[in-house]
Structures are given as structure tokens and as C-alpha cells.
Design goal:
This protein is α/β, with parallel strands linked by helices. Helices cover 52% and strands 11% of the residues.
Length: 393
DNA sequence: AATCCACAGGAAGATTAGGATA
DNA sequence: TATCCTAATCTTCCTGTGGATT
């Protein structure tokens, strides 16, 4: 049930598979397939379909005695033009016993190498660029899109995959028209389809009857609410199973799913917090401190931008850290709000001004622990807010 | 109805980091 | 390696405002 597992059958994506296959089919006749652009939110099966069709293509190619190359690359990892070309070159290395080093060669020489290797290979090459929007600079795409005109015998077609619908808007028009010969959109799964996917997976992964009847519908419903993300649904089920297993339960129940969802959410927020820039961390730390103290005093659980800024400034002084202006804090606070770590909405307290009312919805303890992983907060752990010091003095 | 608090949040310019280029 | 460019970050200065209070 891990996200890396690639099933043999992709339920409810038959049409997409057929569409993509029919675009790529000319490759089996030795012709150049159109370039394709695939859009779709996360967990809608873009990558899975692309890989699946690729595998089929190679298989069918072997049957028919046609040689087809299929290169899959994730542009989040292979994110520069050089690495892209190098990766393509590497694909041919085994066959031709050539060698391209990780670094050192000028990019155009690698390009020339790729070209000559492809021509020697004489086949059709399908290049899949997953998450193309992560690629740095559109130069790389431009190079690839015009590679066909530089080739003599070989043929190349490109499949671009992105979850950003607006991605092509910022692209060079030439690249845009050449890449977007065919467009495909993957729509999110609905709750029923997710349920079906889960059921099939469960049959393979879990023993019979270890799962309560309402668990799968619940997982699918929760995931469907969240943009119909199949990966999310599977994660939910897997984590539920792990939770049930850990507590030595015989069956996975409804409650495990609820716990699992909470855990996934916490994990997600924790990860976001961990990768926050330092200034934002400091601000969050201030908010948490005030929150903690308010709770202790039984005061109401909200605070204003002014209070946060005051505490933040003191913390900066203590930690000998550069202090930003309140204007900037305003923006960073609303950024934290957008990330879903805190809730901040503008309210008016009438005569007493207009401010943001800031609240911390998730467990303060978890977040404090995460923040204190950072050395910066070691010294600040025992810091007391103004009003608290006043109390002790 | 008028006042006025405590900020929100826009505009424009300064500073800075990182990457490209010569 | 030095220099230039760009985007992101941050500051300064500013006007705007919802509604409890006067």
C-alpha cells in the first residue's frame, strides 16, 4: 500500500490509458508521436498512467520487433538542462558502452552526444518529464522540443506532466505550441471510484476480513473531500492499518481511520513547520509562548498582532537576532495562516482598534517540540512573556 | 453622529541572495 | 574570479477602516 507501489491495473483510468496509448501508437510504426501535455492534480494517476503506457509500449514494441526507447524523468530531481541531457545519454550507455560524466562536459557537447547516440540507435524515443514545472529555466524544454529537427534517423516525442494548470502560460510560445500538440486532463477521482481502488488494493495487501465494513467508505469519502487524491486515500488506509496493528487490534475500525487522519495532518504540519524560515519560526514560537501562557492563566485563547510583535521583539533581543518591522510581521503572520499552521482573521474591537485575532488550532506541544529541534530556540525555551515576568517580580 | 484605536494592507524604494555571464 | 541581473525579502511611509465609545 505504499505510494511507490505500481499496480498492474489502474481502475477508472482506462480512458486515459487508451487516449495516451493512441497518441503514442505511431511509435510502433516507427513514426514520431505527437508531444503530449498531461495536467491533473496530485494523486490522479498521471505518473502511474504514463509509466504504465510506457511499459506496454516497450512490450508491444518487442513483439513487433520495433525498438522503442522510453525514458522517465522526474524534473524535481533532474532539474537542470545538463542533468536532463546527461540522464538521456545514460539511457543509451549500456547499449553503446559510452560514458558521460556527471560534470565537466559543456552542455552542447552532451547534447551532441545525445544526438549522435539517438541517431545510432535509430529508434523512436519517448521522453517523459514528470513535474515539468519544477524544471529550472525553459531553455531545457526549448532544446528538447527542437531536437527532432537535428536528428537524422531517430525520432523523439515528449510527454510533459504537470499539476499546475497555468504552467504553460509562462512558457516560451514556441515551446508551448510544440509541447502542447496534444493535451490531456486528468480529473480527480470521486468517492465511489476511490472506494473501488481501495477495495482492489485491500484484496492484495491485507488478509481477508481484518477490516470493518465502513472503513473503506470512510477513507474514500475523506480523500474525496480532499481533491479526490488516490494517494491520500491509500495513505489513510495504510496508516490506519499501522495504527490498528500497533495496538494489537484484530480489525481495522472506523476509529483507527480518524486517528490516522489526525496523525497525517499533524505529520504534515510538523513537516511544514520544520522547513519554515527562521524568522517565521521565531514568530510562531512567540505565538505558541503567548498561547501557552494564556492557557495557563485561563485567559481567552486569542492574541493580537501587537502582542505577538512585542514578544517577538523581546525574543529577537535575547537571541541576538535581527528584528523585522511590524509591517513585515503582519505579512509573515498571514503567511503562517495560509499554511494552515495558525488561524488569523481580521476583527474589529471597536474603539480598541482593528487587529488580527490569532489562534493556534493544533496541539501546541507538538509544534514546540519541533521548533526546539532548532538550536536557535535552545536558549529561548525558558523565556517568559512580559506579563508573566511582572507576575513573578 | 462623531471620534479614534490599533492595526491592515497598498506603494515604492532599498537591500540581499543566488544565479548567470563575461 | 569579478560583475552584473533578477527575484525575493524587507523597510519606510502611507492611507484606510469597523465599530465600541463618547
Amino acid at each position: 500500500m505504499r505510494p511507490t507501489y505500481m499496480p498492474e491495473i489502474l481502475p477508472h483510468r482506462e480512458k486515459e490509458i487508451k487516449d495516451l496509448a493512441s497518441v503514442l501508437v505511431p511509435a510502433l510504426r516507427g513514426e514520431t508521436p505527437s508531444n503530449v501535455f498531461i495536467y491533473g492534480k496530485t494523486g490522479t494517476g498521471k505518473t502511474a498512467v504514463a509509466k504504465f503506457v510506457g511499459k506496454e509500449l516497450i512490450k508491444k514494441g518487442k513483439e513487433k520487433g520495433k525498438h522503442v526507447n522510453y525514458i522517465y524523468m522526474n524534473c524535481e530531481i533532474v532539474d537542470t538542462q545538463y542533468r536532463l541531457l546527461q540522464n538521456i545519454a545514460n539511457h543509451f550507455i549500456e547499449e553503446w558502452n559510452e560514458h558521460v560524466p556527471f560534470t565537466g562536459w559543456p552542455t552542447d557537447e552532451v547534447y551532441a552526444k545525445v544526438r549522435s547516440m539517438m541517431d545510432k540507435d535509430e529508434g523512436v524515443t519517448v521522453i517523459v518529464l514528470d513535474e515539468v514545472d519544477k524544471l529550472k529555466g525553459d531553455e531545457a524544454l526549448y532544446t528538447l522540443s527542437r531536437i527532432n529537427s537535428d536528428l537524422v534517423t531517430a525520432k523523439v516525442s515528449i510527454i510533459g506532466i504537470s499539476n499546475d494548470l497555468k504552467f504553460t502560460e509562462f512558457l516560451d510560445p514556441r515551446v508551448k505550441s510544440s509541447l502542447g500538440e496534444e493535451n490531456m486532463i486528468f480529473y480527480p477521482y470521486d468517492a465511489g471510484q476511490l472506494q473501488d481502488i481501495l477495495e482492489r488494493r485491500v484484496k492484495m495487501a491485507l488478509k481477508f476480513q481484518v477490516i470493518d465494513d465502513d472503513v473503506i467508505p470512510l477513507c474514500s469519502a475523506l480523500a474525496a473531500q480532499e481533491h479526490g487524491d488516490a494517494r491520500r486515500a491509500l495513505d489513510l488506509l495504510r496508516v490506519s492499518a499501522e495504527i490498528a496493528e500497533r495496538s494489537n487490534a484484530k480489525r481495522i475500525t472506523n476509529r483507527d481511520v480518524r486517528v490516522a487522519q489526525h496523525k497525517i495532518e499533524i505529520d504534515h504540519i510538523t513537516e511544514v513547520v520544520r522547513t519554515l524560515p527562521n524568522q517565521s519560526k521565531l514568530i510562531l514560537f512567540s505565538i505558541l509562548l503567548i498561547n501557552k501562557q494564556n492557557k495557563k492563566e485561563g485567559a481567552n485563547q486569542m492574541m493580537t498582532t501587537g502582542e505577538v510583535f512585542e514578544t517577538y521583539r523581546d525574543l529577537c533581543k535575547k537571541a541576538r537576532y535581527d528584528c523585522l518591522t511590524q509591517r513585515r510581521i503582519t505579512d509573515l503572520v498571514s503567511e503562517l495562516d495560509m499554511l494552515g499552521i495558525i488561524t488569523a482573521r481580521v476583527i474589529s474591537k471597536g474603539r480598541y482598534g482593528r487587529t488580527r485575532e490569532i489562534q493556534v488550532p493544533v496541539s501546541t506541544k507538538d509544534l514546540l517540540v519541533v521548533l526546539q529541534e532548532d538550536d536557535m530556540f535552545k536558549d529561548l525555551a525558558n523565556y517568559k512573556t512580559k506579563s508573566q515576568t511582572r507576575l513573578t517580580v
